[in-house]
Amino acid sequence: MTWTRFFAAFVSFALISAKAPDFSVCESADASLIGGYTIEPDTRMDNAPIYSNGNDVAFFRNKGFWYIGNLGQWPPETYYRCVEAESCNMGLDTPPIGPGVWTASKKFGKEPVPVVVAGACPVDEL
Predict the structure, then answer these.
(1) CB-neighbour burial class of residue 35 (10 A; exposed 0-12, middle 13-18, buried 19+)
(2) Does the residue 35 lie in any domain?
(3) Which end of the chain is more exposed for a tag (fewer CB within 10 A), N or C?
């Protein structure tokens, strides 16, 4: 196998092996929220999966509604919440995607609220 083929095979394997995010925060007043979020295997809250980003920030459900915050603290530090039953995926296993559904908490949240998208954030084309 030539060096070029070996390198191409390695890159292909790395791309296939890397788990794409389930969804991402592309814009936020809080930089710790920006990036991809993946499901935490075997970890649930309110009988729903928890999605985290590696910066101690997670999307989690409580009493049917979705929140963004730090679960490392107890009680959790809630930065943003989505508590409108119709637009907030109440009772579903995934948090709501799209603009206009999240509100900042008075204690920990910052404006503007995060922009959440399905999958990875789009890459700006030059």
Answers:
(1) middle
(2) yes
(3) C
pLDDT in tens, 19-73: 789 999 999 999 999 999 999 998 999 999 999 998 899 999 999 999 999 998 8
**Strands laid side by side in the 77-82 sheet:** 103-104, 77-82, 65-70, 58-62, 48-52, 35-45, 23-27, 115-118
Structural domain boundaries, residue 30: 20-118
- Are residues 79 and 106 in contact, defined by beta-carbon separation less than 8 angstroms? no
Tell me, yes or no, whether 39 lies in a domain.
yes
Tally of structural domains, the chain: 1
User: What sign results for the dihedral spanned by CA atoms 64, 69, 42, 23?
Assistant: positive
How many residues belong to the chain?
A: 126
- Evaluate whether residue 8 is within a structural domain: no
In DSSP terms, 8 is beta-bridged to none
pTM: 0.80
